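Input record (one chain):
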Amino acid sequence: MMEHETREKAKNAVKLILEAAGFEVEEVDGPLDLSAVRDDEYVAVLCSVEADTIAEFDRTNYDIVIRGVQVPCKKLLFTLDNKIHTEHCIVWGVREFVRLSGEATLARVLDRELSLTLIPGAGAGSAPDTAPDTTPEPVVAEIAGVSIPHLPVKVTKQNAERISGTQGTAILKFMPHWVYHYMSSGEQVYQDHRIPFDSEGWGAINAINGLKLEIDPKTIDKGEIPGDAEVVGPKISKDEANTRVFGELVERLTQQVRIKQVKGDTIWYEEKVMKPEKKNISIDIDLVHFPVWQVRGKKIVEVNAFTGELLSQPMDEGCEIL
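The corresponding structure, as predicted from the sequence alone:
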């Protein structure tokens, strides 16, 4: 039996996941725990390990009346018993629960909606310990990753392991980068010298180790990432990255002009430093994640999952440099 305190905690955690996916969630009277609504999608939720309660939930049809029309509800079960089998429920076991809780947390941190598809009739659970595991693990729900700006994955796991040149298993990570677009305008005039500061461009800064990269903004995808990938958070803040971009841009555009001065028989040269004004520089900066296959064997090697390049400088501080 799931203790009352544990059930309350489970109910609150499931509620947070569904709310991160855009559902409006309310607590309901027993034996159910929650009801959730998203557009025309209605879900009844039960958190339990009791076989009888789950069996009753599985065979009961739940409907909601909308404008006089009965609409069937999907049924979502969260259970800690991995041997539970159902026919008509979407089942979240421990593995799915841990994964979705993490993805929901990330979605809230990034102020984005969790992409979550619930498929009625999908089941979860494992075969009894005495039976050989000869069939693929059943799909509980078709769960896509969160939608975040990223570069697409163009290199497969198998190719990444081959490119790495080391024996090991590749895991997909999305590494944070601050991608920026800058524009500078204006000019300075001194005597007969005119110094323009017109400039525009794109760039990226690794938000973990500070390395700079080039980027084509047309390659950025704002859709979903694979649900089993690990999304790494930034260590360098947006303000820090913006300050660095601004400082480097001003330094690059600053010019030292040598001006010839003639007075009577005397000739001398005046050195004049001309730099753009802050008001004439605009910088737009956003977080974009770059995909990396991290191959872990006797050593850790990283492969750029977008270009297939073997990285000589690790995107993750914890990796060794080849």
